[in-house]
Amino acid sequence: MAPRDAPGVQIPVRSAALHGDITVPDRATGIVLFAHGSGSSRLSPRNRSVARRFQEAGLATLLFDLLTPAEEEVDEQTREYRFDIELLADRLVEVTDWVTTQDELKRLNVGYFGASTGAAAALFAAARRPEVVRAVVSRGGRPDLAAPLLGQVRAPTLLIVGGLDDVVIGMNEEALAQLRTEKSLEIVPGATHLFSEEGALETVGRLAADWFTKHLA
Prior knowledge:
There is one protein chain. This protein is α/β, with parallel strands linked by helices. It has one domain (about 5-215): Alpha/Beta hydrolase fold, catalytic domain (Rossmann fold, 3-Layer(aba) Sandwich), CATH 3.40.50.1820. Helix content is about 35%, strand content about 25%. It is built from 6 helices and 8 strands, in the order βββαβααβαββαβα. It has an 8-stranded mixed β-sheet with strand order 1-2-4-3-5-6-7-8, sandwiched between helices. β1 and β2 form a beta hairpin. α1 (about 45-55) packs across α6 and α3 crosses α4 (about 115-130). The radius of gyration is 16 Å and the shape is globular. It starts with a strand and ends with a helix.
């Protein structure tokens, strides 16, 4: 059976409606919510490439915009929202709560895939919904921005960093030491922050899909 797609869904949150795209493969047991980094969106080719890898592994995916179009426009000029981790985490929590009310989605175990600042929001949200979130993967993330709540994260957490992303490697090593749950740090050799090198993003997709398949089954 082909995956069931719901492009262009509107997800209500307290102060806005967020745009999202949902794909649910047949017999999916888990759904991965994407929390993108600053300056990105649900249409990011990198995130969509990783999402396809998850779908091939039998995982449902929800890519959505953490900010409204108006907020994105303001952020482009002022950078007002991209480091507002509490706002981004609030949005992710609200979307998570929405997922648990949807007939076709509420049976699925929830995981978060966060990139850059979105990874901090994912860790914040995981700490606030420990009974719902079953796994977290960070790609080139800034877990240091979630430092106050890292010790409260209960979801098994995988941190993936490019081997040439020296500063971010250090941030992730420090975060790994603060996590008090099942955890792992994977360094992709020869990759920079955006994993734009040949084969790097494919490695991210494989590592993340394996982690989610293990913990969302």
